[in-house]
Amino acid sequence: MDKALADLIKISNITGKDSTLVQGGGGNTSVKTDDGQYMYIKASGTALKDMNVKLGWRRLRLDAVLSVIEDKELAKLDAGKREPVVVDRLLLACDDNVKIAARPSVESHLHAFLERCVIHLHPLAVAAYVNAKNGRAHIEKIFKKEKLPPLWVPYTDPGFMLAKRISKLIQQYQKQHGAKPAVMFLEKHGLFVTASTPDAALRLVRKVIKLCKSKLKPIKPRTTKAPAKADITAAKEAIGKAVFDATGQSLPVTYSSKNKSVAAFMARKDAAKLLATPALNPDELVYANGSAMWLKTCDVKAITRKLKSLVRRGQKPAVAFVIKGLGLFVSAPESTTPLIVDMTTSSLVIRMYAAQFGGVLALNRRQQDFINNWESEAFRKKLVSKKK
Ligand SMILES: [Zn+2]
User: Is residue 129 in some structural domain?
Assistant: First the structure.
């Protein structure tokens, strides 16, 4: 096996199996070959922990990937036309014998100009800062003693524009510091680390998480008395009816029991405020239709009204509902419910953390509209529902 592929499987499996690193879901990895010609990268649709010699990666020609970012004609297109072309170009850059037509990660072009090994994750300890109003200032303080400071990347639409912006920021960083950044914090998104060896990249990830955690006040998990069965049944019925009345869809409603993070969230005085902001990041918007809806009581008419108001404003109707005193309910097909529960639970934790650093920083309206129209996100969502 190619050494670069062995290294990729190593960093993917180690990070994928570590629950503190893959918290929040998602993430991708890549390793370049020593001759500088190719890059092995995680494929869409396979979890990091499941990658193996046969599955979960693609090999791309680096020159073909870099030519995508340097393409001036592409930069002139609007996103709706551009992003499908970019996805096709990345697929064309694949040069391997992989039989299953999995797409390379949608962030492939971004990996191309980083160091040999790249690990990208969305850990909660990092989201606590990249989704907080004063997150950047706190990160700068925490990493003040580092010889090479981390690079903070202000929120940019994912895909081509993000790759271009990072390429520019890295050039500026290199001029200023004489080296490329090893750690990047992407606002409203996550973490990138890059190093020349797999061990150095893994060490760096752990160090960043440790430093981020060092200033976080831990959220005490809570256990509350289980609500009465009749109350849960009534809430499920009310949500099901409201979803049908507002969207015409008849979907199963699932109750997520024994959820200590949800219990901690419900006990807060600022719970309603923390959920009043939109999706924290593109993933929450794509996979969980945005923020969960906070409900003080479970009234069909009130829920219907709130859902209709979201749709009227051109937003996706909520699929997750946090009902005070009861817990988290999800209205979705069974295949996607576990992912929505995970994502919403993570989001509640991030929102509680962000309150420690000036409040929640979420996607604005324009940023949400871009994601809603993004072709490759739609493709990823389709893959997830097919896989399960
Ligand atoms: Zn990401």
Answer: yes
Cα of 289 from ligand 1 centre, angstroms? 17
Distance CA 313, CA 56 (A): 38
**How many domains does the chain contain in total?**
2
Of the candidates 202, 216, 220, the one whose C-alpha atom is nearest the C-alpha of residue 18 is 202
Whether 123 contacts 210, CB under 8 Å: no
CA distances from 169 to 159, 194, 294 (A): 16, 15, 38
| CATH, residue 33 | 3.40.225.10
Question: What is the structure's pLDDT at 294?
Answer: 97
- Residue 3: which of 116, 128, 147 has the closest Cα? 116
Looking at the fold, whether 243 and 198 belong to one and the same domain comes out as no
pTM metric for this prediction: 0.92
Where in the sequence is the domain holding 41, given as residue range(s)?
3-214
Report whether pLDDT(213) > 80.
Answer: yes
Distances (CA, A) of 64 to 68, 70, 85, 163: 7, 10, 13, 14
C-alpha of residue 124 to centroid of ligand 1, in Å: 13
d(CA 337, CA 329): 10
Encode pLDDT of 313-340 as tens digits.
888 999 999 999 999 999 999 999 999 9
How many angstroms separate the alpha carbon of residue 35 from the centre of ligand 1?
A: 27
My answer on whether 259 and 371 are in the same domain is yes
pLDDT tens readout for residues 261-305: 999 999 999 999 999 999 999 989 988 999 999 999 999 999 999
- Across the beta sheet with 327-331, the strand order is 253-256, 327-331, 320-323, 293-295
Q: How far is the CA of 188 from the centre of ligand 1 (A)?
A: 10
Pull the structure tokens for residue 217. 């006040």
Ligand 1 centroid – CA 317 distance (Å)? 24
Cα-Cα-Cα-Cα torsion 339, 155, 120, 23, nearest 10 degrees, comes to: -40
| Burial classification of residue 44, based on how many CB atoms lie within 10 Å of its CB (0-12 exposed, 13-18 middle, 19 or more buried) | buried
Strands of 28-32's sheet in order across: 57-61, 38-42, 28-32, 117-121, 190-195, 183-186, 151-153
Q: Which residues pair with 104 in a beta bridge?
A: 43
Reported as a single tens digit per residue, the pLDDT across 53-110 is 999 999 999 999 999 988 989 888 888 788 888 888 988 999 998 877 788 877 788 8
Q: What is the pLDDT of residue 385?
A: 55
What percentage of the chain has pLDDT greater than the value 90? 73
